Fold these 2 entries.
Entry 1:
Amino acid sequence: MPVTDRTVHTLDARGTIRDWLVAPAWGWPCEDLADHLPADGSPWGPPDGSARWVLTNGPDVAGLKARLHAAHLLPGEPPAGAVAVGAPVTVPGPDAVARDAVWLRHHTGEDGLVDWSVFCFTPSYRLGVAAAVLEVDQADPRVLEVASTGPWRAYLDGRPLASSDSFTYMEPHTTRVPVPLPSRTSTLTVVTWQVGFREVRHILRVRVLGLPVRV
């Protein structure tokens, strides 16, 4: 058998992609937090994200996170660089700063989650990216089920595929995306965004619904 520069993996029994290339998540301070949340006054208030108590990162924080995300939208450009182990990747950020890393292998746990969760000692914006190469023998449609606790943008072979601006607290929000896969390989790349006020659940899971694919 010829030697190749790739490894081949299968989906799990639920169709989850378990093997990814990822970059370590980037984080930077929320320097404009006071523009979206009063810095003084009572910490108590209605559960609409306007009271300072939402900084405890409770379930009612989604409104504040949505306002922050609207001011720091993910750009529409895909990450640049070849998707291969150890290859450099450049990810455009919502603050007009491109961030560099190298792709690393990542095999998820049984929950299928790529997990960048962390404890933030100060309010922080966060950016993560994951990629997988999907292979089918014949051109055929599939449905990708993308699950995340925060906004994301997905690209197929560098072209915009789908996106979500939704926030959830613990259980991820899922979006189903029909996608026509051509024969041979297609590269799926997902850029994720989060903001953490204390502990932050920053996760991604993708399932392929339909006939199996190789990864």
Entry 2:
Amino acid sequence: TQSDGKYGELLLFALVESVLGCKMVAHKIRSLSNFKDQLKGSDGVFLGDYFCGDKIEPAYLIGESKVMGVGSTAIADALSSINRFHDPVTAAEFLSTELIVARETMIESEGVNLDELYDRLNPQSEKFKKQNQIHPILIMYNHSQMNDLETKANNVEELENLIKSELELKKEALSKYIKEKVEGYEHLGKVFLDFFIVPTNDVDAFRNSMYFEIHGQQFKEKQ
């Protein structure tokens, strides 16, 4: 599980749909037959309406998730991956391939207008051109203070409050760090980057728990 990327993708899916209100229309989880497959493409394509300034605009979202021990490494890797869609040398190839794969692996659900979805994922269509491009980015990393907070807390409510206070203290510095890293890329400042920052005490424990919940349930169902 330590090299498996689909658990971060699942968490990103839950966050984008619940927090941003944008629906996933394509993902690569079904094709993850080997590790190399996980290195291709984004971690989910979403469609929806997104707050751009003070207006709600139609948008397509190309996600990226990084579940790594070191937060700075996760941020650097995520921005490098997202930059592939904007670097003039690679942008056309990566975006075109991503949208083609999204159309071919589109998730069908009741009440969804597939023709409209195809239009919104077609770079030649007017609907596509009127959309904003958004990148939701999940960063999960080992936070050095998490064990201390868990030891200090007497119950779940206290732990949640301690974590919230800890993140409030770190928020400004973390935001400044991300902005500095984004400035290192010529084109990333032109698009919306929506970060979900999730500190934990052990990213491997997260992966193992997700593996057990998914595959353990599948095993029970087969029995």
